[in-house]
Structure formats: structure tokens, C-alpha cells
Amino acid sequence: MFEGFQLDRIGGLRVRHGGSGLPVVLLHGHPRTHTTWWQVAPELAREFTVVCPDLRGYGESHKPPSDATHTPYSKRSMARDITSLMSELGHERFAVVGHDRGSYVAYRTALDWPDRVTKLVVIDGVPVVEALERCDAKFAADWWHWWFFGQLAKPAERVICADPETWYNAWTSNGPDQLGPENHADFLAAIRNPATVHAMIEDYRAGLGVDRQADEDDRAAGRQLTCPTMMLWSTRDDIEDIYGDPLQVWRSWCPQIVGHGIDSTHHVAENAPAELVRSLQTFLRT
């Protein structure tokens, strides 16, 4: 995987980077690591400098102790990791692409550091506060894991760590045939590590509290995304079922947002990499 890329550890993050041209950072979702981009990053690296980190807490990146507010796993803390990483690599301005949980880090980076983010792509995600305010019986039934992960008595960690491979469908829908052997091996190593499982769950706990508050504060202050922004979503996932037109959800945050669906299940970088690459290239080039 990642032929021609360099593997480093910078500021607590495990990161692969390669290519040349305008810089773009790719942020994975739960429960993946940076290797989810193995079919996407090399194609983008033909014309961009591509940076793929493991998010804080995920994969082999650092896992700082949490606290009662879960702030160490807030998207603001994770976004700060990304800006520091890009500075270390010499990129003061860059595009950011985030999928799933990574989409929350991506838009938080663009909101908090508008002078540094040139373009934003969010995939399969809407602002946390928008998701929670639209929560109804269908959302609660389909996304029940948010509330299970949010329990402070830590039943999620106990249940997942008892049999992580079954919980994460590691030999069925998330098997090596779907993920690719090396990506699958990295995924397995991550979900088998109790410290990684705990950190990933802390990400969700932060989402229900401190991240929601950050979104509410931004909205009350009238802050909007100022960089060109695109949303992509997997049409065989449940984004449209829950939100209808997801672009409408984003328009109060970014009136000029563009986007479209991709024929894929949730993990689009693995399920429809060619179409994702084309969409990203078209947007990032302009």
C-alpha cells in the first residue's frame, strides 16, 4: 500500500504522506485508520501532496488520558492536531477531506482555522448539532450506537473488547476481500487494542457534549464556513433516509455548498474509490 509514500510519527500522530502539488489531508472515520485511503491517496498523489494521519486515539496515534468533559477527544482538539501536523510538514494552507467521524474534524478545522483551509470536503456527515437536533425515533433506532457509546459506565468498551472482530464484522462485511489484505490487517490491529477502542468511544462521548456545544456557540455567533465546500454522501447508506437532501442541512453553515451522492455503501473510500477520486480531483482542481 501507499507506494512512494513516507510513513512517519509526527506530534503523536502516525501519518503517511506523499505526492507533490497543492496539499490535501485525508481524515478517516470510525473504526478505520488512515489505511482506509489506500486506493484513493496514491491516485490523488499524482497531482497533490497527500497527507493521511490516524486521528487522535485511532490506529497507532497517541491516546491521551480523557477527562469528565471528554475534551481531549473533542473535534477541536483533533483539528488542532491536524493544523500542527500540517505545519510540521511545511503546509501552512491546505485542503481537508473527512469521512464519517473525520468529517467532524474536517469542518471543525475549517471553522477554527479559516485562514489555513483552502477547501473542505465532508463525506457522510452533517454538523453534530444538526444531527442531534433532528434526532427522532428513526435516527435513534438506526444510530443507536451513539447513545450506547455515550454511556459513562463504559458498557461499550466491555462489550466491544469481549469480541471486537464480531462487533466490527471483521470477517464478513469488513473482511479482507472488502478492505484489502493490508488495510484489513491494520483495521484488525486497531480494533483488537482496548486502548484504541476506549479512545474511539471517547470520540463519540465528546460528540454528544463538548462538540455539540462548540457547534451551538458557532451558530449563535453566526460563524460560517468561508472556504469552498463540497459534501459527498453514500447513496446506499442512510444519509438521505434520515435528512432528505443533506445539502439543505449544510446550507445554513455554508450557503454555497455543492455536492452529490456516490453509489456506494458507507465506507466509500473502500467501496467506490474510483468515483471518489474523480469527485475529489474535480473539486480540488478548480
UniProtKB/TrEMBL annotation:
Key words of the record: Hydrolase
Membrane-traversing stretches: none
Family matches, as SUPFAM superfamilies: alpha/beta-Hydrolases
One function term, GO molecular function aspect: hydrolase activity
Entry keyword Hydrolase: yes
Listed InterPro entries: AB_hydrolase_1, AB_hydrolase_fold, AB_hydrolase_sf
Keyword Hydrolase: yes
Domain of life where this protein originates: Bacteria
UniProt cross-references to Pfam families, sorted A to Z: Abhydrolase_1
Domain (AB hydrolase-1): residue spans on this chain: 23-267
PANTHER family linked to this entry: CIS-3-ALKYL-4-ALKYLOXETAN-2-ONE DECARBOXYLASE (PTHR43798:SF24), MONOACYLGLYCEROL LIPASE (PTHR43798)
Designated name of the protein: Alpha/beta hydrolase
